Model the fold of this input.
Amino acid sequence: MPVILNIDNVTKRYRKAGGLFSSGGQLFTAVDGVSLALEKNTTLGIVGESGSGKTTLAKLILGIEKPDSGRVTLDGRELSSLSGAELRLARRGAQMVFQDPYSSLNPRMKIIDIVLEPLRAAGEKIADGEKTAAALLERVGLKPDALLRYPHEFSGGQRQRVAIARALATGPGMILADEPISSLDISIQAQIMNLLNRLKKELGISYIFISHDLAAVRYLCDFVAVMYRGCVVEYAPAAELFRDTRHPYTRLLLSAVPDPDPARKTVLEERRDGSGGPGPQACVFSDRCPRAAEACLKKRPDYTEAAPGHFVRCVRAEAGAN
Ligand SMILES: Nc1ncnc2c1ncn2[C@@H]1O[C@H](COP(=O)(O)OP(=O)(O)OP(=O)(O)O)[C@@H](O)[C@H]1O
Ligand SMILES: [Mg+2]
Done:
């Protein structure tokens, strides 16, 4: 299958905020040696608890952040080697849809200007703005009478449709959607998921779908990558990952039932700050793994192909155990 995006051994480190009088905190690794490929016209889900590096990975893919090492290649062009006009051109090929359609749409801009903004930012001359914007709105199921209105006149689901129309403006090959449905009502979530799927069929779009919602991931995604402390610990076709879960962390995620006490957070929601944890010699999950053994502290496991196309980073998988 042709690949639209290739992420090759990408690492990103941040400096932890230091105390008031310190000149700078320790470095910690937000994305740690991630390699992934996105096949054309497929959806790759990225799951993992809060702080595991999902959004940082998205920023690296869009060229908003530069990796400390490794390479991101979008449609055959390596982003870190580009600058200025070339980078702007490459960026047209990948657009983002954010979690919160209330804060991601400028309240002072009319819908027509919001939707056309990426084209203007790319320096494109638009012959007939109204026609272009109306066609984009039609794609996402909105009527042209929305064009001259402002975001506050729309519901959350409609705003997310506007955000998707804006993402489509440059004709991207891929869209990164970072928690695109989690701020919406349940009934609206299904509509937005159906819209994403329809656009995939109609326009041949590829998606990266970042989500805490495993049911949504199961419904939408062809492949799933599970992140823990900046590492991808398991990657497989979606149906396979849910049927034959291999990594102890993924098992923990799939078994985590939301707690009825809202003050207590599920495994997925509890935010970790990415620092601390096992050293580089140990498996990243060894301090929390219910099955950790001596060997897990001595060696960071590499990927094992446990079944065709199903990759796991676990010492037990390396040893051939399940
Ligand atoms: N600009 C930054 N400077 C310093 N630390 C950062 C920066 N951006 C992210 N981090 C840290 O990197 C780690 C990964 O953050 P990231 O936002 O990628 O996680 P996430 O998986 O998207 O979490 P969530 O599910 O809550 O959105 C966190 O520890 C976060 O605090
Ligand atoms: Mg995030």
User: Anything to note?
Assistant: The longest strand covers residues 3-15. The chain has a mean pLDDT of 90.
